Amino acid sequence: MLHRIDEIPLRAAEVAGRLFVTNFSAVGPDPEGALDRVNASVVACMLTRHEIELRYPDYGEWLDSHSDAASSPRALWLPTPDGSVTTDGPVLELVEVVVSALDRGDSVLVHCGAGMARTAVIGILTMVAFGADPAAAAVDFRAARPGGGPDGPPQERQIARLVPKARRLRASE
User: Fold this and answer.
1) Under 8 Å CB-to-CB from 83, ≥6 apart: which residues?
2) pLDDT per residue as tens digits for the range 74-90
3) What angle do helix axes 118-129 and 153-167 make, rounded to 10 degrees?
4) How far apart are the first and last CA of the chain?
5) Residue (of 120, 127, 131) closest to 154 by Cα position
6) d(C-alpha 80, C-alpha 154), whole Å
7) How many CA atoms lie within 13 A of 134 on its CB side?
């Protein structure tokens, strides 16, 4: 069974890459296959190691072996508890890496457990970095990924806190 992989619209005319989001079941059993389905070169995982070990333990090994930052990683990993947030600094760093990859022309596949909430934090902030209004970005994210969006006040507040910094990620362009 092929699980949904949805493209998130980046309305900036000059963006060369494409942003995709999905759930763990689409990526965990075969990360290379999931990347190949959408011609993406990078996967960004928001799951905790415990979540990975419960369902697809080999995926954790794949993430470990493909996340060497020095050699243009194929895997980005920011463990974030389900329904929660991680600290702002690492979230913004991940968004910055995703934005850089998209600017280089790479396509990025972001996922969490369901591809809805933790994924939405990264997706919406990435959209904002490419010039989207935060409210419009949330609407566009939900339209592209039905049911997707921040999972309550902690994620909503994190997005709001990071919007000013996300807007500056491409300011030098």
Assistant:
1) 117, 151, 152
2) 999 999 999 999 999 99
3) 20
4) 41
5) 120
6) 12
7) 16
